[in-house]
Amino acid sequence: MLTLLPVALLMFQGTPTTLTQRPSVTASETPPAPVSADGEIIVNGTTRLHVASMIKRMTGDSDAQIPRWNTSICVTVRGAVPDKAQYIAETVAVNARTVGVPIEGRSCPPNVEIIISNQADALVSRFLRRQPNMFRNVARYGIARSRNRAELTNPSPVRWTMGTATERRLGAASRLSQPSREDKKQILVIIDLPRCGDVTWEQLSSYVSMVVLANPEHGDSSNSGSIMSLFDANTRDRPNSLTDLDRLLLKALYATEDQVSAASQQYAMTDYIVREQNKRHSR
Fold this sequence. Notes:
Blueprint: H1 5-11, H2 48-58, E1 75-78, H3 82-98, E2 112-117, H4 120-130, H5 146-153, E3 158-168, E4 180-192, H6 201-213, H7 244-255, H8 262-281
Parallel strand pairs: 1-2, 2-4
Antiparallel strand pairs: 3-4
């Protein structure tokens, strides 16, 4: 597991946000996905193949298990004017609660660290210089840390790297289940503000929510139908917030069994989303 956040906190001297009051949305920002009178999200249909493909991109490329939050999260946002940092923190918190991930209160040790910087490349360089052992390709770390280095040095508008841990001894294994699960423990997100272009704070906070709560792949692969297409040059109509499919995907991730292989959970997530879509279309 990577130990990221204490180091990042020491390096960055910005003032953290607190979850007190949500700022108003600007005129360029639109409301979230439409909701029916009984509070259910209205979903536009899509093919099973598209759903399965999106789930694969949003849950990582591990053949083991899909990591997700199984404990409460403490969100800290640094480096923006207070109301904008507040808005991002609130959006992540609201989306987390929607899928059952609890949010810690004040003065909690952060395990979700979001840094907004006008000099992201320099910030990452300092971080890597101070933590060289964290990224060495040696057996003791379990996975190749060059991958984590690449995640942080990639000059994207939003870059991130996370630490996970395998929780074992969770009961007897069966033909379908495993006596373990993969827990998210920490995530460091760096927003390179100059590279974000003309995106709104609503779009940015929704994008960051997917980064924190799901496990999206890095890169510019097509994410049609998702807020993760926000920085895709081929996207014509960029979503203004989490899409219907994004919301269902997050619900599926946290509603399906996690003590199974990644492939099994991805299949269950696809079933969950298609079933929910069919139920709403039949009304």
